[in-house]
Amino acid sequence: MVTVESSSYATTYASLSAWRRQGSCWVQVYGPWTARIGANGFSDHKSEGDDTTPTGHYGIGPIMYGNAADPGVAYSYHRLVCGDWWDEDPSSADYNTFQHVPCGQPPPFEGDSEALWKETTAYPSFAVVQYNTSPVVKGAGSAIFIHADVGGPTAGGVSLPLSELNQLLDWLAPAALPLIVMAPDPEINRF
Q1: Bridge partner list, 15
Q2: Is 104:94 a contact under the CB 8 Å cutoff?
């Protein structure tokens, strides 16, 4: 399990820790590390473009992605290439999913969709938080990732310095069905 806790809903700083189950107890493996969250803090009611990080507990997607070579993750890894997008257009049938469009062609979706292969600072490698994935609710928010720190708050994901990000991504094991739990400290036990 990964926990991301902040002092309040409004802050853009959080503390990230990684935990391993040992019998009936949770043992801290990594952290606490300083992480950044959305420019507008945490939200219990995230919506597309609001720059908040959703509270709750979520799984980690089955594929990790990145512009750099696989840092040694246990998950399937897709090295990004020209034409790799994250569809963030709420009117699109493929909203909140990875999409490949032939390089040089405009995508069939609009909104603030991300050209992932161009985001080399944020996305040397990243994990997808399974927020708003099953079912996908149009406009409830998209592209919630655990990614590299860019020197400020995020658009809604969770960021870490690259060395800590790589340690975390390498440690996560799909067979363990890891969860990420995100909320202000006083609220985290709700999840």
Answers
A1: 5, 34
A2: no
d(CA 12, CA 20): 26
Q: What is the pLDDT of residue 27?
A: 96
Segments making up each domain of the chain, as ranges: 2-190
Predicted TM-score (pTM) of this structure: 0.96
- In angstroms, rounded to a whole number, what is the distance separating the alpha carbons of residues 132 and 42? 15
Residue appearing with tokens 């609710």: 137
Among residues 165, 95, 85, the alpha carbon closest in space to that of 133 is found at: 95
What span, in angstroms and rounded, lies between the C-alpha atoms of 88 and 97?
8
Give CA–CA dist 166/74, Å, rounded: 12
Please, what are the averages of pLDDT over each run of 10 residues along the chain (191 residues)?
A: 98 98 95 98 98 98 98 97 98 98 96 96 98 97 98 98 97 97 94 90
Rounded Cα–Cα distance for residues 38 and 52 (Å):
4
Q: In what order do the strands lie in the sheet with 97-100?
A: 97-100, 84-87, 114-115
